[in-house]
Amino acid sequence: MKTALVTGITGQDGSYLAALLLDKGYKVYGIQRRSSTISTERIEPLIEEGVELISGDLIDENSLIRAMEKIDPCEVYNLGAQSFVPTSWDQPILTGEVTALGVTRMLEAIRIVNPKIRFYQASSSEMFGKVRETPQNENTPFYPRSPYGVAKAYGHWITVNYRESYDIFAVSGILFNHESPQRGLEFVTRKVSYGVAKIKAGLQKELRLGNLEAKRDWGFAGDYVRAMWLMLQQDEPDDYVISTDETHTVKKMCEVAFSRVGLNYEDYVVQAPEFFRPAEVQLLIGDSSKARKKLGWKPEVDFRGLIEMMVDADVERINNMIKE
Ligand code: NAP
Ligand code: GDD
């Protein structure tokens, strides 16, 4: 039985990846940081199915070494991060500690405990920032526009560097935005799907958003964790862009979400200055042809299917809340 260790297991991707790995017969361990409230909401059913949690933090090197010594994993997926872009302007140093240096701490732990461990780093299309070319592929230069994007660029390059310096099987997955009903409530797709459900139920009157013209290449998280796993099953470590290769504005996403429940977004969406960013990433669209060719990966859920899935899930959640 293969053993995997996942940081960020309590997050959106962590929940989908843990489910996939269990399905493939892995013994799955996750690193959970200490919190005064319960953070395992997304993975409760998976804990029932055998996922085990180990206390640790990407800021605490020794906790990572201890976790790897205890578990002896063959694969490590580093999904843990301060992942919300606006927070990275409020807490740039924390973001650097967790999202950038956290990667080095993971790689050092691997180097110390067992350099044969295969390592996946959750890199991001946010590194492309003020895009240098369109669409963006593995060779497109980075121009990050947020402290988060800068931290991820560091994480990417330290992963490449440990691969080249120490011959570690370390890969960087440059994933474009991916969403699901498990997405955090502050990210725009979920903010919209949850807002739509509340408005439809008469619990909210308007939805305050920022830049409606920004374009993103949105895919489904369930499809994207498959790509993470595939990257670690290859003969040679390499870096891959994962995307749908389609882009849509936030406005279009709102239109699809509201129309799912028979509403017109223009009657409810209000542009609010507090949700604009100090520096914006206006356009992201990936070119995932390398992953499609070499990994045999392709997304199964399209943009409309994704947004409708999210709205339907939130409508059901709100209806259940009302009934209780
Ligand atoms: P998410 O839902 O925000 O989850 C982040 C995870 O990181 C949570 O489990 C969180 O734990 C954990 N974490 C935060 N600080 C930590 C620390 N100091 N030590 C250990 N764990 C810590 O993010 P996601 O959407 O699943 O994304 C997963 C990864 O992919 C992240 O690295 C993200 O930056 C990257 N990524 C995401 C996307 C996307 O569109 N989703 C695209 C490209 C790259 P708590 O539950 O305790 O907060
Ligand atoms: N969050 C949010 N809230 N974004 C808004 C809002 C709003 O009210 N209104 C407009 N937007 C715009 C943002 O300005 C941005 O251009 C776009 O919607 C997407 O914002 P987010 O959903 O917060 O995602 P992100 O693109 O900044 O970052 C996500 O994707 C990255 C990959 O490109 C995160 O998951 C990152 O962790 C990930 O690396």
Can you describe this structure?
With 324 residues, the chain is of the alpha/beta class. It folds into two domains: 3-178 and 219-242, 3-Layer(aba) Sandwich (Rossmann fold), CATH 3.40.50.720; 185-216 and 247-281 and 302-323, UDP-galactose 4-epimerase, domain 1 (Alpha-Beta Complex). Helices cover 43% and strands 15% of the residues. The chain is built from eleven helices and 13 strands. The chain has helices spanning 12-23, 44-48, 61-71, 85-90, 92-113, 147-166, 188-200, 221-232, 250-260, 289-294, 303-323, and strands at 3-7, 27-32, 52-55, 75-78, 118-124, 170-175, 178-179, 207-209, 215-216, 219-220, 240-242, 248-249, 269-271. Strands 3-2-1-4-5-6-11 form a seven-stranded parallel β-sheet, sandwiched between helices. It has a two-stranded parallel sheet with strand order 7-10. Strand 2 (27-32), helix 2 and strand 3 form a beta-alpha-beta unit. Helix 1 packs across helix 8 (221-232), helix 7 (188-200) packs across helix 11 (303-323) and helix 9 packs across helix 11. Bound molecules: NADP nicotinamide-adenine-dinucleotide phosphate and guanosine-5'-diphosphate-alpha-D-mannose. Guanosine-5'-diphosphate-alpha-D-mannose binds at residues 83, 85, 124-126, 176-177, 186-188, 191, 209-211, 214, 216, 250, 275, 277, 280-281, 284.
